[in-house]
UniProtKB/TrEMBL annotation:
EC number: 6.3.2.2
Name this polypeptide is given: Putative glutamate--cysteine ligase 2
Organism for this UniProt entry: Streptomyces canarius
Keyword field: ATP-binding, Ligase, Nucleotide-binding
Stored HAMAP family: Glu_cys_ligase_2
Length: 362
């Protein structure tokens, strides 16, 4: 059974006012003091962000438990210095990002200017194990039409700098300002994938292969496919659903490759439109159907994803849980819907943030 690991980026905020706080270095120092040798938490581009990574898991219930445990540990370390953590993909309140002390981050700021300073966004990256780079690239080529559906499921960033954006996942619009971000063409082989990344680095526009910010890519550190489209999810259960679907998609794609079925090729232009549609509306309006690339009601698209990956879900023991999670998500909504509901109820973006802190910390 393929293993799955999750990386989540959390927003550090004042637990009372909801204002983002650039205290990542202090939180990491506290974590190191409390647990010497810990390798769970890391700094990110800005001091208002904290990242954690789970261990590879084959059981989705165990993965969910670890995500919850890591969120609580992050909250505990942050709380010791008067800070809170929120699983929000953008800050609903105005913020001036504080660049973390790091030569790489300084290079990014000097190279790309204002877009770098707009990247205070928190994502969820899912790593799914693959047997080889060749299998991994075959999977990447076949995943592409389904990635916008994962975007819609996870959408959790409707506000930006104190204002509604009109988007369910505005984080994705910000992230795609990087010149190497977004959907890719089909590569066809591991050799072509690595050649393309090497050619990108050779242009001098990006620093290294880690800056190939594709929606899904081969991990440079692990024998995994890294799926990068998801916002950090407000609810840990939604993160587990995304991870479960990612594993099922990887397994289904690998089987199609081994059976000699060609990868679909809707073209990058249509993939970009599908991604925009998912980011704009989340699950509230139509998505573009991954097969036909025509509008289709979001519930039907989610159920078609369950059907497409059904064999893999069943064999992994995930089918019943995934079906239940999808129906619950369609009933209650994703993080974007919940943030908007909180604003409608409270009338205050500060109250939205403080309530999200409470929910993140469990």
């Amino acid at each position: 059974m393929r293993t799955v690991g999750v990386e989540e980026e959390l927003l550090l905020v004042d637990p009372d006012s909801g204002d983002p706080k650039a205290l990542a270095a202090a939180v990491l120092a506290r974590a190191a003091q409390d647990d010497p040798g810990q390798d769970v938490f890391e700094k990110e581009l800005f001091g208002q962000m904290l990242e954690f990574a789970t261990h590879p898991q084959s059981d989705m219930a165990a993965l969910g438990d670890e995500i919850v445990r890591c969120r609580k540990e992050a909250a505990r370390h942050a709380g010791q210095i008067g800070c809170g953590v929120a699983a929000l993909a953008t800050s609903p309140l105005p913020v001036s990002p504080a660049l973390s002390v790091n030569d790489r981050y300084q290079w990014l700021a000097e190279r790309f200017g204002i877009p770098t300073w707009e990247q205070l966004v928190c994502g969820c990256h899912v790593h799914v194990s693959v047997e080889s780079d060749e299998e991994g690239v075959a999977v990447l080529d076949r995943l592409r039409p389904w990635l916008p559906v994962l975007r819609a499921i996870s959408a959790n960033s409707p506000f930006w700098q104190g204002r509604p954006t009109g988007y369910a996942s505005y984080r994705s619009r910000v992230w795609n300002r990087w010149p190497s971000a977004g959907p890719t063409e089909a590569f066809g082989s591991a050799e072509r994938y690595h050649r393309r990344v090497a050619d990108m680095v050779a242009t001098g526009v990006i620093l290294d292969e880690a800056m190939a910010y594709f929606d899904a890519r081969l991990s440079a550190r692990y024998p995994t496919v890294e799926i990068r489209v998801a916002d950090v999810c407000l609810c840990a259960e939604t993160a587990v659903l995304v991870a479960t679907l990612c594993r099922a998609l990887v397994e289904t794609a690998a089987r199609e490759w081994r059976a000699g079925r060609p990868a679909p090729d809707p073209g990058v232009s249509l993939l970009r439109l599908a991604d925009w549609q998912a980011a704009r509306y989340g699950l509230e309006e139509d998505l573009l159907d991954p097969v036909a690339m025509r509008p289709r009601r979001a519930p039907r698209v989610l159920r078609s994803l369950l059907e497409y990956t059904g064999d893999a879900l069943t064999e992994n023991g995930d089918a019943a849980r995934a079906e239940q999670a999808v129906e619950e998500l369609l009933r209650t909504g994703n993080g974007a819907r919940e943030q908007r509901r909180l604003l409608e109820h409270t009338g205050s973006l500060r109250d939205v943030v403080t309530e999200c802190v409470r929910r993140t910390q469990g």
